[in-house]
C-alpha cells in the first residue's frame, strides 16, 4: 500500500467560524464528515473525524481549519514575571511526544493530500520565491524580528483574516492529530519515538490573548516565551519568513487552545469565485436553509455578482439556479463569475427587476436573497418602503412548501418583523372581544376582556388587518444573527404554506 492511500484513524480538529456561524458549522461537520464528539464555543467548533483531508477542504461554513494540539482550562499565571514565564512554557509544551506525533501526522497527511511523497521540499522551494516579496513588508511590520526568535502578530486576528490577505498570512499546509489518536496504519508510535530528532521543523508562533493573561503579557511577548520553549524543549528552529509549521495559540479566561493550520489558505477562500461580493460563508449558510433537493429551482432575484448562486451550484448537484438583477454592471460581474466557475449550464442570469419578476406564479422551489443595505445600496429610494412590494413579488413566484431566505440589516429586520407580528392578531382579538361585549350590553367591569381604548381602536384595527393580509401564506421559520465583519446582519427564513 502506498503512503498516499494510508488509512486514517480519527483525529481531533477545530474550525474557526464567524459570529453566529457556529450552529451551521456544527451541522456541516456532522453531515459531511460524519464527525463525532462535536462541541462549540464562541468562534470555534471542535470535532473528531477520520475523513480524508480532501473532504475537510469541502467545509463551506468555516473560516479556517486547525489540527488540535491542546484544549485546556485557562491557566493561572503568577504575578512574578519569571514564575509566570515558567508556568506558561510548562503548560503550553507539556508532553513533547504530542508535538512530535503531530508533526509526523502532518508529513503523512500532506503526502496523502498532494499525492507526492516529496511534497514538503518541492512546495517549500516553489513557495519561497513566490511569497518572499509579498511577505517582506507584511512580516517586518507584524513580526518581532529581535533575537531571531519567533514573534507573534499582535494586531492580527487569525480567525478573521480578510480575503485579500489570505495568501500572505500563512505558509505551508499542516495536518495531524491531537496526540491521543494514532497515526496512519503504516506508522507506529514506536517509529515516531525513534525518530524525534529527525522531526525537527522550522516554525513560527502566532498568538492571541485576552482576559487576565493579556494584562501580564502582550501577544508578541507570549509568542517569544512560547517560541523559546519550543526551541529549547523540542529542538525546532524559529523561522519567520518561510516556516514549515505555524503554531497558533489562543489564551483567554475561557480556555487555552493550541492548533496547527491544516491548509495554507483559509477554507473561506473560494478558488471558483473571481469577483467577491457577499461573504461566501454567509452565502452558503443561507443556501443551506433553503432545503435544496434534486430538481430544485432556486432563484436569487437580486443576485449582484452571483455569490449565492455560485455557492448553491457548487455544493448542490442536480438542481437549477436563476439569478436576476436590474444593475447591468453587477450582472456582468455575475456572468464572469459563472463562466470562471464553469457553471454556465447550471446558472441562468437575466436582467430584471425584483419588483416585477418575469416568472409565473408558484414557479420556483426556493428563493435566497441578500437584500441590499448600507453602502451596498446606492439609491435614493428607502428600502423600507420597497420591502413590502419586494416580499409580495417573491411570495407570488414561490411554490407552496418552498423556502424564502433573506439577509437583512438589523433595521430592516425589525421593520419586516412587524408584518408577521403576533401582537396584531392579539390586538384584533381584543378588538373583536370588545365589540362583542358592547353588543351584549355588558360592562367592561363585569368581564375579563382586555379593552382597547376607543381613540386607538380604529387605527390599530386598520393597520393590523392590512399587515396580516399582505403575507398570509408566509410563516416565519427561524432567524439567525451573523457577523459581516464591520456590522451584523440577520438571516430570516420563511416557508410558504398556502397559495
What this model shows, in words?
- The protein has 16 helices and 15 strands.
- Residues 1-7, 116-194 and 425-461 have low confidence and may be disordered.
- With 499 residues, the protein is an alpha/beta fold.
- The strands form 2 sheets. It has an 8-stranded mixed beta sheet with strand order 2-3-1-4-8-7-5-6. Strands 11-10-9-12-13-15-14 form a 7-stranded mixed beta sheet.
- Strand 9 (297-300), helix 11 and strand 10 (320-325) form a beta-alpha-beta unit.
- Helix content is 38%, strand content 20%.
Largest sheet: 8 strands, mixed
Provide mean pLDDT, rounded: 78
Number of strands: 15
- Beta-strand content: 15-25%
Poorly predicted runs of 5 or more residues: 1-7, 116-194, 425-461
Our Rg estimate from Cα atoms comes to 28 Å
Overall geometry comes to: elongated
Secondary structure class reads alpha/beta
Residue share in helix? 25-40%
Task: Give the oligomer, counting copies of the same chain as homo and different chains as hetero.
Answer: single chain
**What is the topology, as strand order, of the major beta sheet?**
2-3-1-4-8-7-5-6
- How many H/I helices? 16
C-alpha end-to-end distance: 60 Å
Amino acid at each position: 500500500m502506498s503512503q498516499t492511500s494510508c488509512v486514517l484513524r480519527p483525529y481531533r480538529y477545530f474550525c474557526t467560524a464567524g459570529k453566529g456561524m457556529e450552529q451551521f458549522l456544527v451541522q456541516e461537520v456532522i453531515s459531511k464528515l460524519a464527525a463525532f464528539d462535536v462541541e462549540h464555543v464562541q468562534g470555534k467548533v471542535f470535532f473528531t473525524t477520520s475523513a480524508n483531508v480532501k473532504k475537510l477542504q469541502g467545509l463551506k461554513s468555516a473560516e479556517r481549519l486547525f489540527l488540535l494540539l491542546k484544549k485546556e482550562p485557562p491557566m493561572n499565571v503568577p504575578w512574578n514575571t519569571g514564575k509566570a514565564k515558567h508556568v506558561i512554557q510548562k503548560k503550553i509544551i507539556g508532553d513533547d511526544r504530542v508535538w512530535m506525533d503531530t508533526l509526523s501526522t502532518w508529513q503523512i497527511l500532506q503526502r496523502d493530500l498532494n499525492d507526492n511523497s516529496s511534497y514538503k521540499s518541492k512546495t517549500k522551494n516553489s513557495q519561497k520565491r513566490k511569497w518572499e516579496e509579498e511577505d517582506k513588508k507584511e512580516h517586518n511590520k507584524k513580526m518581532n524580528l529581535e533575537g531571531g526568535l519567533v514573534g507573534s502578530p499582535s494586531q492580527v486576528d487569525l480567525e478573521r483574516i480578510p480575503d485579500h490577505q489570505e495568501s500572505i498570512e500563512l505558509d505551508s499546509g499542516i495536518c495531524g492529530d491531537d496526540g491521543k489518536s494514532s497515526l496512519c496504519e503504516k506508522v507506529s508510535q514506536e517509529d515516531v519515538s525513534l525518530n524525534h530528532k529527525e522531526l525537527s521543523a522550522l516554525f513560527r508562533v502566532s498568538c492571541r490573548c485576552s482576559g487576565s493573561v493579556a494584562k501580564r503579557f502582550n501577544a508578541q511577548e507570549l509568542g517569544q516565551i512560547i517560541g523559546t520553549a519550543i526551541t529549547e524543549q523540542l529542538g525546532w528552529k524559529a523561522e519567520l519568513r518561510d516556516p514549515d509549521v505555524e503554531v497558533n495559540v489562543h489564551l483567554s479566561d475561557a480556555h487555552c487552545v493550541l492548533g496547527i493550520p491544516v491548509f495554507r489558505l483559509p477554507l473561506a477562500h473560494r478558488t471558483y469565485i473571481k469577483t467577491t461580493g457577499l461573504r461566501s460563508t454567509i452565502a452558503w449558510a443561507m443556501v443551506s436553509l433553503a432545503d435544496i433537493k434534486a430538481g430544485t429551482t432556486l432563484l436569487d432575484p437580486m443576485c449582484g455578482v452571483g455569490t449565492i448562486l455560485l455557492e448553491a451550484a457548487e455544493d448542490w448537484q442536480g438542481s437549477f439556479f436563476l439569478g436576476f438583477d436590474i444593475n447591468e454592471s453587477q450582472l456582468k460581474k455575475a456572468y464572469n463569475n459563472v463562466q470562471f466557475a464553469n457553471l454556465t449550464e447550471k446558472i441562468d442570469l437575466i436582467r430584471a427587476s425584483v419588483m416585477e419578476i418575469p416568472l409565473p406564479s408558484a414557479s420556483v422551489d426556493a428563493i435566497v436573497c441578500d437584500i441590499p443595505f448600507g453602502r451596498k445600496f446606492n439609491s435614493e429610494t428607502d428600502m423600507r418602503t420597497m420591502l413590502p412590494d419586494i416580499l409580495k413579488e417573491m411570495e407570488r413566484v414561490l411554490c407552496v412548501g418552498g423556502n424564502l431566505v433573506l439577509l437583512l440589516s438589523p433595521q430592516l429586520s425589525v421593520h419586516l418583523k412587524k408584518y408577521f407580528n403576533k401582537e396584531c392578531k392579539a390586538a384584533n382579538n381584543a378588538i373583536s372581544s370588545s365589540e362583542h361585549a358592547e353588543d351584549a350590553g355588558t360592562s367592561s367591569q363585569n368581564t375579563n376582556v382586555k379593552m382597547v381604548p376607543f381613540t386607538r381602536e380604529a387605527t390599530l384595527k386598520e393597520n393590523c388587518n392590512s399587515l396580516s393580509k399582505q403575507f398570509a401564506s408566509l410563516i416565519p421559520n427561524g432567524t439567525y444573527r451573523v457577523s459581516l465583519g464591520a456590522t451584523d446582519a440577520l438571516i430570516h427564513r420563511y416557508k410558504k404554506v398556502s397559495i
